[in-house]
Request: fold
Amino acid sequence: MNQFKAEIVGVGQTAYTRGTENTESEQVIHAALEACKDAGLEPSAVDGIVMAWNDIPSNEDFINALGITDLRYHSHVHIGGASAAAAVGQAAAAVTCGMADNVLVTLGWNAYSGKHSFSSADQTESAIYVPGLKIRQNLEMPLGIFAPMQWYSFHANRWMHEYNIDPAGMRTVSLTTRRHANLNPAAYFHSRTLTEEDYDSSKTLVKPFHLFDISLETDGAAAVLVSRSSNHDKGVSILSSTEGHANYPDDILGRRDILNMGITKAGPRALELAGVTTDDIDFAQLYDCFTFIVLRQLEELGFCERGESPDFVADGRIGLGGELPVNTHGGLLSEAHVAGMNHIVEAVRQLRGDCGERQVENAEVGLVTGYGDFGDGSALVLAKN
Reply:
C-alpha cells in the first residue's frame, strides 16, 4: 500500500556547527543546492518549495538563488518539530496530484548563534516562536516557567509518577544516540564519547532532566527533494505521511490527559496507510528534543505499552544490531538540532545503504517522527525502492 506516488530523490545538508558566518538564508540555500546535486537535478527545474517551520529564506530568495523559472507550488508548515515530516507529506501530495514535479523541502536555522535559543529565558516575540504565547506570558512566566525543559518536565514527571518509570531508560537513549553519533562524521558530537558515569554525574537542570537528556543547539540546515515516483537511482519511496495534534494543542497543564500527544493519533495512522506494522519497521528516527520523548513515542506508536518503554530500550534493542535501531545518526541529542529534517536525511541514507559503519543491515522500511510545540506530532514511513 502506498499513500503517494512520490519519492525522495535527493538529500542535502550543511556542516553542523556552533558558530557560523553564514546567515540562515545562506544555510538553507546551501542545503537545497546539495539536495539538487545529490538528485542530479538542475536547481532551475525545481517548481515547488515547502518550508518547514522557519520562514527563512523567502520564496523570492529561492527563485533567485536557484534560478527557478516557474514556481508552481509553495507552502509553509508551522508545527514546531513536527514540521519536517509533515512538510514532506505536503510535498508528496503536491507531486502526486500534479501541482508540481520537483519539490524542495527545507529547514534550517542558526539555533546556537542566532536568535533561536531554546534555552533562553527571553521567550518573547523577539526570541523563538512560542505557541500560545499569551498563556505563557500571563500564566506561566510570572511563576518562572520560561523554557521548554520546564514545560516538558510536567509531562515527564507525571508519566514517571503514574507508571513508576525507571529513569535508566532515559540514560539508555542518551548513551545509545551518542554511540551512534560517534560513528557519524557529520555529527557535532562525533569525537565526544559519553559514559554512564558522565551521564549520572551531569547536572540535573530541571527534574528529571540531566544535561544529556536535552537536545543540542546548533547552526545548520538540511533539505530533501521530492519528485514523482520513477524508480530514480537514489529514490526512496514515501509510503505515508500523517500529522496529529494534542486535544489541547497550546497547553500541557490544562489537558485532561497530560500524556495526550499528537503522535498518539499520527503514528498508528501512518503505519496503517503504509500497510505496515511495527514489526515491519527496520529502524526509527524518532524526534528527540528530550530523551523521555523518545520513550513516550515508542509507547504511543505501539512498540510497547505505556510505562514499558524503559524495558523496551534495554539490552541493546535500540542500538545498531538491535531489533529497532533508533536515531542512527545521533539525533537532535548528539548529531545536530535541525528540528528533525536531519532525521529524514538519515532515513533516506539508511534505505540507500550509504551509512557506512552505522548502516542498519538489510534496511527496507524506516519510520521518522516529529514532535512539536506542546504535542503536535507527525510520522513518515519510507521504503527502499
